[in-house]
C-alpha cells in the first residue's frame, strides 16, 4: 500500500495518544447536529439536508397507511422505540386509509398504496429508479413520510429516520432531510462462528439480529460444524454448546421480523473433525478421526442427509452454505488412489455436485466457499452454474481480482467474503479489516457480486464477539453504499450511529487501540498500515516472560512497551470515563475496556520482566559486605507486598474475573472453563515466581548466596 493512500486513513501514533488523552480528560462539546449534514450509516445514495427540523411533540402519531402489509408494523415499532428512548414517551401507532390532516405525524407505507402514491406526488417525491429494498424519506416541519418499495425498504427507511432523531433536553427533533436510497448489494450479511469455543446465548443472538438490521444487513450466517443437536445421534455435538431446536426456531422467527434471514453454514467435506473424532463416525473419515469426510464412501451422502433432513425444517432460508473449504486431507487417505487417477479438481467437483443435488432436492440455493476453486481454477468451468460461490480472502492486497475474476462470466452468483480482523488477537486489527472489507467489496461490485458475508472467526476459542462491531458496521456500510466508504468519514459518523454520542471519541479510541497491532507487529512506532495482520496476538499473553519464548517476545515488545501501554491506558480512560455518553450499545464498551487492560498488562509484563532482571542483577552486584541493604531493597522490589511479581499476579486476577463476566454476558458456559484455565495457568505462573523469589529473599536474609540470574531464566543484558 503506498504512503499517499495509507496516510489518508491513519493518524500518527503521537496524534492518537494526544487525541485520546484529550478525549479522556476534557469534557466534550456537543455537536449541533441540526446545523450539519446528518450523520448516517450507511450513507444514503441521495440525501438533501433541509434547514428546518420536525419538532416532536406529545400529539405525534405514527401512521401506517392501510391496508397494512404483513411485517410493516415492525418498521413503525422501531420508530416508536427510538422516540421512546429519546423522549420517554410512547407515541401511538395507528392505521389510517389516508394521511391525517393538521396532526403531526410520521406517515409510513409502501409505494404501491394509492394513498402513499398520492402523498408522494403531492410532495414531488419521485420513486423512479429506486431499487428493491429501497425507500424514500422526507422530513418536513409538519409531517414525515417514510415510503418503501417493499417491506424491507420501509424498514430500512425507518432505520435511517432513527438516526435523525436528536434529543433536545427531554424532547426531540428530527433533522430535516429528503432521501432516496437503495442498496448496492442485494445480500448483506455477517456471521457467528458457533464451532470454535464461544457459542452465543439466544438473547445475544437476538441482539446481533437487531443491531445488524439497524444498519441494513439482511442475513446472519451461523457457522455450524457440530453445534446442532440431531435426534437419534446423541454424540453429535455432545462436547459443544448449542441452542435447542425450539430456540433455533425462535431465533429464525425473531430475525424475520427484522428482515434478517438466518442461514446455516455447515460442512460437507473438510472441517468435520468434531464429529469424526467419535468412533461411531470415524469410519466415514478420509483418515481415522481426521478432518475430512471420505468423498468416495458410499454412506457419505446418507450421513449428510441425516443432518439436512433435521436441520432444514428449522431453517427455511432459500440459501444453504455447504462449506467444502480447506479440504486439506482430500487425496491423502482413502481417496488417494482416486485423486491420483482422476485428479484433485475432478474429485472435489464430483463431491460438490453430489452434495449440491442433495440440497437442491430440498429446494435450496446452494452456496460453497470458493478457496479450493480459486486454487484450482481449471475446475471452475465444470461447476454447476446454479451455485453461489462465497469467495473469501482475509489478507490485504492491492487487488482482489485473483479471488473474483475466475468466477466472473461463469454463470455462478458471487458473494464477497472479507472479515472483521478478530482472529487470535487481543483487539481486532481494524486497519487490516477496513482495508480488506473496503477493497474486496469494491472489486466485488466491479465483477457483479450480489452479496457479502462479513465473516467472524474464533479460531483460538477465546474471542468475544463484541469487539468486532466496528468492522461489522463498516462492512454493512460498504455493502449498502455504491461507491467507496471512506474510513475517516465513517469514523466521524460512527459514534452517533452506533452509540448516539455527539463526538467521535469512541471511534478514535477504537482506532488507537487497534493500531497497537501495527506497533507490535513492527516493533517500533509506525504511522501507516503495512498490509500485514495482527501483532497483539492472544498467544503472547500466555507466554511466560522468563521462558525461551518469552525472551524472544521481550526483544520485540520492550522497544514499544511504553508506547503500547500509553495507547491502551488512554483508550481505557476514554471507554471508562465516557461510558455515560453512549446511550446505545454501551455494553460493547466493557469488552473494549477489557481489551485495553489486557494489552496494558501484557506490555507491563515485559517492562517488569526487564525491571526484575535489572533489580536482580543489582542485588547480585551488592550482595556482599555493607551493600547488602541495597540488595535487600532490590529483592523487595521484585517480590514483596508491592513487588513487581505481585503486581503481575493482581492484574491477572482482575482480568480473569472481567473475562468471566464478559463471557457469560454473551455466551453459554460450557467452553468457558477451557479459557479460564489459561488465566489460572497464568496466575499460577506468577504465584510460583512469588514463592520462588520469596524463598530467595528470605534465604538471602539468612546468609544464603543468590542463585545465578541464568538459572532463574531472567532476561539477559541486565541494566539496559
Report on the architecture of this protein.
The structure is a single chain. This protein has 720 residues and is of the alpha/beta class. The protein has three domains: 32-181, Chitobiase/beta-hexosaminidase domain 2-like (Chitobiase, domain 2); 187-500, Glycosidases (TIM Barrel), CATH 3.20.20.80; 537-712, no CATH class. Helix content is 44%, strand content 12%. It has 25 helices and 18 strands. The strands form three sheets. An eight-stranded parallel β-sheet has the order 13-12-11-18-17-16-15-14. The protein has a seven-stranded mixed β-sheet with strand order 1-10-6-7-5-3-4, with helices on both faces. The protein has a three-stranded antiparallel β-sheet with strand order 2-9-8. A hairpin with a 2-residue loop joins β8 (165-168) and β9. α21 packs antiparallel against α22 (588-621) and α22 (588-621) runs antiparallel to α24. The two termini are 36 Å apart.
Give me a quick take on this structure.
With 720 residues, the chain is an alpha/beta fold. It contains 25 helices and 18 strands.
Task: Please identify, by name, the CATH architecture of the largest domain.
Answer: Alpha-Beta Barrel
Q: What is the CATH class name of the largest domain?
A: Alpha Beta
Which parts are unreliable, with pLDDT below 50 for 5 consecutive residues or more? 1-32
Helix content, binned percent: 40-55%
Strand order of the largest sheet: 13-12-11-18-17-16-15-14
- Rg, alpha carbons: 29 Å
Major beta sheet, specifics?
A: 8 strands, parallel
CATH fold-type name of the largest domain: TIM Barrel
Strand content: 5-15%
